[in-house]
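Researcher: Sequence recovery benchmark, item below. Answer with residues only.
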């Protein structure tokens, strides 16, 4: 869904799990800005991140890299911060620096950005590629 709707502006490369423990699912490039993305479907509140994925995201940030955890929630009891119900859930975008807290709190943790349905793919891309410093952890 993401690749199909952003392919005019973004080069997405799917990464095989043999790349090493914790390496995110995808690498993306747009206008010379490079980011990594871990793609998750949350069933209920939990976001299943491994300790290797958390460690990779935090270490990558320490070296100045930008990574994101993109979550598609499938839940019957959405958190309070969700907008009014729609046909499809929002896409939740978390900074890689939020990985530990996301693993512990699940989607109860307020995301860095939320893209409501119908999805605004320009806003989605702007969030990921606005500035390398966007993953500052604040």
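Model:
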């Amino acid at each position: 869904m993401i690749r199909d709707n952003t392919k005019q502006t973004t080069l997405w490369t799917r990464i095989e799990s043999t790349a090493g423990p914790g390496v995110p699912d995808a690498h993306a490039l747009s206008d010379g800005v490079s980011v990594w993305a871990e793609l998750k479907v949350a069933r209920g509140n939990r976001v299943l991140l491994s300790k290797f994925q958390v460690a990779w995201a935090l270490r990558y940030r320490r070296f100045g890299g930008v990574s994101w955890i993109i979550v598609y929630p499938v839940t019957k009891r959405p958190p309070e911060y969700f907008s009014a119900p729609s046909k499809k859930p929002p896409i939740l975008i978390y900074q890689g620096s939020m990985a530990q807290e996301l693993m512990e709190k699940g989607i109860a943790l307020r995301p860095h950005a939320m893209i409501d349905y119908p999805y605004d793919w320009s806003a989605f891309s702007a969030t990921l590629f606005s500035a390398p410093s966007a993953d500052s952890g604040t």
